[in-house]
Specification:
The protein is mostly helical. 63% of the residues lie in helices and 0% in strands. It contains ten helices and no strands. The longest helix has 30 residues, at 190-219. It starts with 19 loop residues before the first helix and ends with a helix. 26% of the residues are buried.
Amino acid sequence: MTTRTPTRRTGTRWWRRPWIAPAAVVALVFLAFSLPNYVTFDPALSRVPAPDFFPPHFPLLALHVIFGSIAMTTCLMQIWPWLRARNPRLHRLTGRVYVLAGVLPAGLLGLVVGAATPFGHVARASNVLLALLWLGCTLAGWRMARRRRYREHRRWMVRSFALTMSIISNRLWSVLIVVLVPVETLGSGQREIMATVSGLSTWLGWVIPLLVAEWWLEHRPARRTSRPDRTGHPDHAGRTGRPAVAPDGSAVPGEGPRGVEDARAARASE
C-alpha cells in the first residue's frame, strides 16, 4: 500500500518580485494626490485647462480619471503573485473588473479626452495612440484568457500593465523636463512651453515603459507552469506532471515529464 505525500503549493516568493511593493506604494500615492480633484466634478479643481472648443471636456476627463483609478488599483491586484496562486477565483474577478470597469471605459473616454487636449497636436497624437494601444493590449489579453491560452494572456497583460502605469511616468517626465531643460529652449510663451513639455512627456511616458516591458518579455528566464491550455498541454515549456495523451489513448512521445526519454526510445526503435 502506497501513501501519497501531500504536495506543497509553491508560489512566487516576494523577493523574486521586489518591484511590486514599491510600485503599489507609488501608485497609491499618485491616486491619493490625483483622484480627489476629480471625484467632486468641480471644474475649478481640474489640473488640465479646459479647451474652449470642447465644453464637455472636464466631465469626461473626471470620468476618465475615476475609471483609470479603478484600472490602476485592480491592475496591482492582478500582478500580485500570491493572489494568482492562492485565490485564482478572486484573480479572475479582479481581472474582469480591470477590463470591464477600468480599462474599457477609461480607454474609450481617453480617446475623446486625448483628441480634445489643449496641449497641442503632438500630445494629441500621443494620447490617442496610447488609448488605442491600451484598449488593444488589454482586450487581446482578455481574449487569450477566455481561450485558455495563458502564456499569451500573461504577455499581453504585461503590456497592458505598462500602459496602465504610464500615467505615473508621464508626470515624472514632466517634472524632469521642467527641472533639467532650460526654459528658453522649450518655447517663447507659457502656452508654447506647456505644449512642448506635454508633448515630450506624453510620448516618453508610455513609449519607454512599453519598450521596457517588451525587453523583459524577451529576456526573462523561461518559466515553468503546471496550468494546461485548452488542449490539455502546458501553455508553454513547462511540464504538466503527466504524460500527454493522444486522441486514441496512447502516450505522445516528447510530452510530459518523461518526454525526452520517450522521444529517444522512439528513435531507437526505428
